[in-house]
Amino acid sequence: MNSKKFTILIIALFLLFTNLSAGLPTFFPVSSSKVMSLNGIYAAGNDGISSLSTNPAGLGYLNGRGVELSVFGRLGQQDYVRNDGTLFRSFRDDDIGINIGAFWKITDKITVAADYNDAYQYRVNWPFAKFFEGELGSSVLAFDHFNDYSITSINPSAAINFGSFTIGLSLNIFNIKHDFAFYQGNAGWDTTETQNAAYQVSIFEDAWGFGGTLGFQADLSSKVRVGAFVKSSISATLEGDARSRLMVDVDSSVSKTSVSSEFEKPWVLGLGVIYKLNDQLTINVDALYNLWGSIQTTQSFTYGNEVWNERLSNLDSLSGYTGGSFPLNFENSFDVGLGVEYDTKSDVIVRLGYRYSQAPNTESNYNMLYPAVDKHWISFGIGFWFEEFYLDLALAYAAGIEKNISKNKNFFYPGDYTGNAFIPSVNIKYQF
To answer: Which parts of 244-293 are beta strand (E)?
Structure first.
C-alpha cells in the first residue's frame, strides 16, 4: 500500500470515530486494537504500550523505540423491562477514548514506557419522565438519570528481561470523575401549588488516585509463553458539588452544597498462555478474577449542609433511592477468553477472539444506575505492516445475557435487564 492510500485510510478512520456515540456500564479497560481483537486480556502477549493496560511485562519483548496511538469508541445500550411491561432504553452518549504513549528499549534487558489512557468508562444514561396526579392537579416531569465514572490514567512503566523470564511494573496515576444524577420524591407536593412532585439531584465529584500493576511473562519453550499480572485496588476520596431545588422549595435551604464520597475499585488478577501451533497460527487463552466482593458495600454521600444530609438520609418511596447512600452489593467476578491469530505471511494478520465477562451485580443491587449484566464478547481484528508503521483495526461486540430480577429480591427495580455494545478501535504504531 503506497503512502497516499495509507494517509487516506487514516483520515477516513479518524472521521469515522469522530461520529461515534457510546455508553457502556463496565469497568473493563479498553486497550489496543490487537489486544481487543484477541479477547481484551492477552496476559501473555505484548503489543506496544497496550501492555501498560494489561501486563507491563510485555514491554520486555519489544525492540527499539516506538510511539503509538489508539482511538476507540464505546457504543452501548441498556434495556430494562419492568414487571408491568414498561420498557426503558438508555441513550447512546458520545464517548471517544484514546491511548497515546511511547516505549524505548534503553538496554538489551531494560525497556521503559509511558502512556496516557482513557482507562475506564462506566456510563449509563436514561431518558426518564414520570407522570404525577393529585388532588390539586397533575404534571409530567422529566429528569436526568445517569451514572458516569470517567477514569483516565498516566502510566510510567518499565520491564526487565532475564532471558526467558520478564518482569514488568507500572505506576498508575488516575484522575477519577463521577457525574451522577437521580430524582427524589416530595410526599407533600399535593398540599401546595409551589412545590413539585419530585426533584432532580445532580452530583459531580473528582479526585486523584494511585495504583500499580505488577506482571511477569515466561517462555516455557519456543512455542509456549505464560503470563500473569496483579492490578492493585484504587481508593480515593471524591469531592465536588451537589445541586437540587428540593431543599430550597421544601426546606427553605440552599440549592447547592459541597459533597464527598469514597471510591473503590478492587484488586484484579490476570493469567494467560500463548501457544504457537505453527509459523502462521497462534492461540491464546486468558482469565481475569476481579475482587469486587472486597470493596465497600455502599457509596455514602456526605453533604456539606445538614438539611441536605437529613433530607437524603431516608429511602425515597417514589424513586427507590436513598440520596445519601447507594448500595454496592457486589460479588467477585471473572472473565475468561480465547484468541486466535493467523499470519498470512503477506504483511497482513487476521485475529478472532471470544470472552465471557461476568458482572459483579447481585440481585439486590440492580437498578437503572447499576444495570450491568453478564456478557458474551466476540471480536475481530486485522493488522497491516507498512515498513516502520503498524496499523491494527478491531471491532468487538458484546451480547448481554438477560437477567431477571424478582420483586422479593429487589422491591423497587424488579424486571428484566439486558444490554449490548460495540467497541470499534484503530491503533497506529511507528517503530524505529
So the answer is: 256-265, 268-276, 281-290
Q: What's the domain count of the chain?
A: 1
Please state the pTM of the whole predicted model. Answer: 0.89
Sign of the CA dihedral running 245, 247, 249, 254: negative
Question: For residue 148, which phi and psi values (nearest 5 degrees)?
Answer: -135, 110
Determine the average pLDDT of the residues in 345-360: 95
| Residues counted in the chain | 432
Taking only the tens place, the pLDDT of each residue in 249-298 is: 999 999 999 999 999 999 999 999 999 999 999 999 999 999 999 999 99
pLDDT digits (tens, 9 = 90+) for 87-145: 999 987 667 888 999 999 999 999 999 999 987 889 999 999 988 887 767 889 999 99
9 lies in some domain: yes
We report the CATH number of the domain holding residue 410 as: 2.40.160.60
Residue 8 has pLDDT above 50, yes or no: no
The kind and range of the H/E element at 244 are none
Instruction: Please work out, in degrees rounded to the nearest 5, the angle formed at the alpha carbon of residue 11 by the alpha carbons of 5 and 14.
Output: 140
Query: Is residue 98 domain-resident?
Result: yes
